[in-house]
């Protein structure tokens, strides 16, 4: 099949590469010429394990190419994937302007039947809107179908998730489009769930919101553990072994971030509200998550006292390990608050970069930790777990560790002479 992927961000690039792996010919289209130039030269402009090797392979074999030319790309491809961003607007709603622009462009250049697949995360009813937007801009009335096919990729493991999905959701009311989608995904062994477009759209929001809820729930239990001096890890393990609950997304910490959970949960709340439905549990979970970095900071200042002029080492900037994405990262909230409290902030991350003048970023953990009053772990990069902490203790001014991701073993750290605090473990 000939596939056009519109929007070559994290999701679009990953999808383009797995379609190449499946033997299809793929064109990537984006409005950002710098991104296209980088990708066409085989260089991934963001950090995501495993993708650059595939990019080089498929550029070399000419199975993949990048363009900004809609007219040509529309002529050559019959399945079009919309993967453009749907950022959060000021009031929480999903900003659909990029999706609308894309739909308008598709309509303008359509010369034959196309299946337009929406992968961008969009509110319920957007498939219908995309259909209208395409029709509005069509010069000649040519039939087409719009399908909702949400993505469930996690950054850091996007390639694995795209190659081994646990389900594929196809939302369409067209038999013709459904046949094409089934043909496209025929080599996947996971269940393919056929639904209405609206149900497919809601499945994506409900899935992300449920995972976000799970995190907020364990973070709330962690706060209670703090007062009782119980290690929340034992609670996560104890409840996660119940198959009805499951062990994943029960890691307490400084809260969830990233380009998806915060925006998707808010978009769901906004659209439910517009339909006169209050999603109270979800609302509370957002409030808890927004407060979680500050909860941890309060813990830090209650132990260290005033942090003004204290030297603090922050390990990790990205919202999770194995990505350079800092969108909505709780680490940034912690860094900003430390700067506000006039602490001296030294920062490290293996791949992400901080854009704050007052926080100095170092290339090694040793330099970052050297001569500091405390270490705050904000991202659970494996590198931090495997550090020679005995040696780190020797170069610190005071032996305080505040582990915002509960990634180190409290007892081991105490044996090494550290004064250790996690979230939900005193
Ligand atoms: C995006 C959406 O934000 C998310 O809701 C959805 O689930 C999947 O797609 P992501 O890939 O992380 O997620 O977004 P981003 O990395 O911002 O990439 C979007 C790309 O679309 C960018 O490269 C941007 O330049 C491009 N774009 C944007 C277009 O090509 N056309 C536009 O009109 C707008
Ligand atoms: C998420 C969804 O998992 C994915 O299915 C969807 O397509 C996009 O949004 P992503 O944002 O890449 O993926 O990362 P994820 O692994 O879900 O983590 C999100 C945030 O939750 C991170 O900040 C992470 O640190 C935090 N988290 C995750 C916890 O605090 N505790 C956990 O137990 C799990």
Structure description:
The chain has helices at 10-21, 33-40, 51-60, 70-76, 97-109, 126-137, 158-163, 175-184, 197-228, 232-240, 261-274, 280-304, 330-340, 365-369, 382-385, 389-395, 410-415; strands at 2-6, 25-29, 64-67, 79-82, 114-118, 144-148, 168-171, 192-195, 311-315, 344-348, 360-361, 374-377, 400-403, 419-422. The chain has 426 residues and is of the alpha/beta class. The strands form three sheets. A six-stranded parallel β-sheet has the order 3-2-1-4-5-6, sandwiched between helices. A six-stranded parallel β-sheet has the order 11-10-9-12-13-14. The radius of gyration is 23 Å and the shape is globular. The chain starts with a strand and ends with a strand. The model has no long low-confidence stretch (mean pLDDT 97). Bound molecules: uridine-5'-diphosphate-xylopyranose (2 copies).
């Amino acid at each position: 099949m000939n596939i056009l992927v519109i929007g070559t961000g994290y999701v679009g690039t990953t999808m383009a590469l797995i379609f190449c792996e499946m033997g299809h010919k793929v064109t990537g289209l984006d409005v950002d010429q710098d991104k296209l130039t980088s990708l066409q030269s085989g260089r991934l402009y963001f950090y995501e394990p495993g993708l650059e090797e595939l990019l080089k392979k498929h550029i070399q074999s000419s199975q993949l190419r990048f363009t900004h030319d809609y007219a040509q790309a529309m002529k050559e491809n019959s399945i079009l994937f919309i993967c453009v961003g749907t950022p959060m607007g000021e009031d929480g709603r999903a900003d659909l302007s990029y999706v609308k622009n894309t739909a308008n462009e598709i309509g303008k250049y359509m010369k034959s039947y196309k299946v337009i697949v929406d992968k961008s995360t969009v509110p319920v009813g957007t498939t219908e809107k995309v259909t209208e937007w395409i029709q509005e801009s069509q010069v000649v009335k040519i039939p087409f179908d719009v399908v909702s096919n949400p993505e469930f990729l996690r950054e850091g493991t996007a390639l694995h998730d795209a190659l081994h999905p646990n389900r594929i959701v196809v939302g369409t009311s067209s038999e013709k489009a459904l046949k094409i989608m089934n043909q496209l995904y025929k080599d996947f062994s996971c269940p393919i769930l056929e639904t209405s477009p609206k149900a497919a759209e809601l499945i994506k929001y409900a899935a992300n919101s449920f995972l976000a809820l799970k995190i907020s729930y364990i973070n709330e239990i962690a706060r209670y553990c703090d007062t009782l001096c119980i290690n929340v890890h034992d609670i996560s393990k104890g409840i996660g072994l119940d198959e009805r609950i499951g062990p994943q997304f029960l890691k307490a910490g400084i809260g969830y971030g990233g380009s998806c959970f915060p925006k998707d949960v808010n978009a769901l709340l906004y659209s439910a509200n517009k339909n006169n439905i209050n999603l109270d549990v979800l609302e509370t979970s957002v409030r808890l998550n927004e407060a979680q970095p500050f909860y941890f900071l309060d813990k830090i200042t209650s132990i260290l006292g005033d942090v003004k002029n204290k030297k603090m080492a922050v390990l990790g900037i990205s919202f999770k390990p194995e990505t350079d994405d800092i969108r909505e990262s709780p680490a940034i909230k912690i860094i900003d608050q430390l700067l506000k409290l006039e602490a001296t902030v030294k920062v490290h991350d293996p791949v992400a970069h901080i854009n704050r003048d007052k926080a100095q970023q170092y290339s090694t953990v040793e330099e970052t930790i050297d001569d500091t009053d405390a270490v705050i772990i904000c991202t659970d990069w494996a590198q931090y777990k495997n550090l020679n902490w005995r040696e780190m203790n020797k170069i610190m001014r005071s032996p305080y560790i505040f582990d915002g991701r509960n990634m180190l073993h409290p007892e081991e750290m105490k044996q090494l002479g550290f004064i250790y605090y996690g979230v939900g473990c005193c």
